Amino acid sequence: MTVVRISDDAAALACGANAVAAAFAKAGCTIERVSSWGMHWLEPLAEIDGPNGRMGFGPLTPDDVASVLAGTSGKAIGTIAEHPFIARQQRFTFARAGKTRPLSLEDYAATGGWAGLKRARELGPEATIAEVTQSGLRGRGGAGFPAGIKWTTVAKAAGPVKYIVCNADEGDSATFADRMVMEGDPFMLIEGMAIAGHAVGACKGYIYVRSEYPHAIAKLNAAIALAVPHIAPFEVEVRVGAGAYVCGEETSLLNSLEGKRGEVRAKPPLPALEGLFGKPTVVNNVLTLAAVPWIMANGGAAYAEVGFGRSRGTMPIQLAGNVKHGGLFEVGFGVTLGELVNEIGGGTASGRPVRAVQVGGPLGAYHPPADFHLPFDYEAFAAADGLIGHAGLTVFDETADMSAQARFAMSFCAAESCGKCTPCRIGSTRGVELIDRIRARTGRQADKVETLPQMHNARKAPRTLGDEIELLEDLCETMKFGSLCALGGFTPYPVLSALKHWPEDFGMPAPSQEAAE
Amino acid sequence: MTDQDELDGILAAHAGREGALLPILHDVQAAFGHVSESAIRHIAQALNLTRAEVHGVVSFYHDFHEEPETRPVLKLCRAESCQARGVEALAAALPDNPRVKVETVYCLGLCSVGPAAMIGHEVHARLDAARLGALVESLA
Ligand SMILES: Cc1cc2nc3c(=O)[nH]c(=O)nc-3n(C[C@H](O)[C@H](O)[C@H](O)COP(=O)(O)O)c2cc1C
Ligand code: SF4
Ligand code: FES
């Protein structure tokens, strides 16, 4: 009987994978639901055992099934593993993607599962942390803090009760790598958490998953139940977020886990010392923890061999937005932005020229094609007034209106602000109004309050467009330096980058050609 | 079973759990479609919190509602990647249907295949005006 492998990842489901699977089943095939390869433009993608080995076909509809089975389909893409999009990658974290059934312990063990945990137990906690430190692994949630240092702090903290908290709030637009790990390889994340628990002396782990990910929640719960004998005495529990973007910020997340409003806490105290319920806590992103089993199985040195500068190992980069070949591309740091967008992503899906690429989600900068030489590396992006964040790329074609994108950044911040500090809570709302006036090109008369005689220092003269732009830059400075966390503090990145690179969208003269070079 | 019994059942199921408030509110929201004033009172009592504390949590999170929503809900993603793939034009052209609530959400993790939407736990991608319109109609 013909075996057909089709993903049951949410992206595949959203593209109609269930109907395609049902059509293959009706035609008498045996269906295996596997994780996704991450070539999303080809979903639903089917892999079929044939006389010449395993062949891929996509994107399929139920109507394609007959021709696929007859060998006449025009949607054949050859051997999936040899597809240029896959062959160019270095898959450490996504080594099993597309190949295994997410909830099969058998598949997991047969592909090296649990080897990292076994070795960590043999080495003992200290040597485990040393291995993670040697790997150079930095937090994949955005800030890039070295995982080994965080683990050391928690390991050294006193007290019998400690926690491992996995940050699976993945709220950034353009990111889905966490979701793909949770849905496609949940045992790997659980193993990573168990290793972390073993290393720092924690017995309990929580995975805080956003409520927008019901498929990931279901897979994790099923996987945790199956994994109990492998990770005991360590325990893992899933907790579901409630639709607040700011709960991805680690201290807000801890408050939320404790059953409180997701307000950001001031640091210090560091969560590593006083985290969940005041106990020492490791908070790590899904991808950080998911990288650990590979590191423990293959050694920290092997991981550190790959990478660029101080960014070691691989990064699961997510290509999204108006891009021809959208999906997951895991590769060593150092690949350039231009390679990612043009060569790997194939340019825009619309076929129009690229205008802007937002890197790092809603708090990340908009980059013009003039930035395409930038290597994917924490420090290089910081030097170019940007950030790599959770490594999501949103590609925009030439129809993008960059002042509208700047306005969106401010309105998103206003909608999601936790309300704790003024520059973020009020500044973002003022920012929306200000950008609206800039977009309307009206300028502004002094308002009622400003013209009151007792308002000695208020400006009485009308404001020009140039004055308003200056005010916007001022507001961004205030938000940048006066906000407690990166929601208010980094919203200026998308706003100021849009203003800097596309001033013509704000009614200002376009930058001259030399200035853009 | 009365609402009161059901609420007591939810509270009993979470008794002794650390940080139980969010899981309780999720269950209450799922069972009743909203978290009512009287539910807030009972939850506060059971967890030894003030009503203001529970109310503060309910009002903080987008997922919890104090008023019931009787219409079916379609969650439409309007975050950056879906914007880049044209969701704003779709949203602007979508005919108003008073029997369906179209709710804006920011990102469903389907950013490479947007515009994307979710109905209950069912996900939809590569939406165009016709498919989005048909989804809304299917709920009405
Ligand atoms: C507004 C805001 C949202 C964030 N969202 C996430 C998120 O969704 N996932 C995540 O892992 N980190 C997020 N972070 C970063 C976390 O605060 C924290 O740095 C991270 O979880 C630490 O784990 P890591 O060291 O493994 O990256 C966010 C930060 C801010 C300020
Ligand atoms: S910057 Fe915004 S989200 Fe962050 S603590 Fe201040 S108000 Fe809260
Ligand atoms: S931006 Fe729409 S699904 Fe992520």
UniProtKB/TrEMBL annotation, chain A:
Alphabetized GO MF terms: 4 iron, 4 sulfur cluster binding; FMN binding; metal ion binding; NADH dehydrogenase (ubiquinone) activity
Ranges that cross the membrane: none
Keyword Transcription listed: no
Coiled-coil zones: none
Superkingdom, natural source: Bacteria
Cross-referenced Gene3D superfamilies: 3.10.20.600, 6.10.250.1450, NADH-ubiquinone oxidoreductase 51kDa subunit, NADH-ubiquinone oxidoreductase 51kDa subunit, iron-sulphur binding domain
UniProt keywords, alphabetically: 4Fe-4S, Iron, Iron-sulfur, Metal-binding
Similarity remark: Belongs to the complex I 51 kDa subunit family.
PANTHER family: NADH-QUINONE OXIDOREDUCTASE SUBUNIT F
Stated name of the protein: Formate dehydrogenase subunit beta
Organism per entry: Novosphingobium sediminis
From TrEMBL, chain B:
Entry annotated with the keyword Flavoprotein: no
Keywords annotated in UniProt: 2Fe-2S, Iron, Iron-sulfur, Metal-binding
InterPro entries: NADP_DH_HndA-like, NuoE_N, Thioredoxin-like_sf
Reactions catalysed according to its record: a quinone + NADH + 5 H(+)(in) = a quinol + NAD(+) + 4 H(+)(out)
Matches recorded under Gene3D superfamilies: Glutaredoxin, NADH-quinone oxidoreductase subunit E
GO MF annotation list: 2 iron, 2 sulfur cluster binding; metal ion binding
Cofactor: [2Fe-2S] cluster
Highest taxon in the source lineage: Bacteria
Similarity annotation: Belongs to the complex I 24 kDa subunit family.
Protein's UniProt name: NADH-quinone oxidoreductase subunit E
Native source organism of the sequence: Novosphingobium sediminis
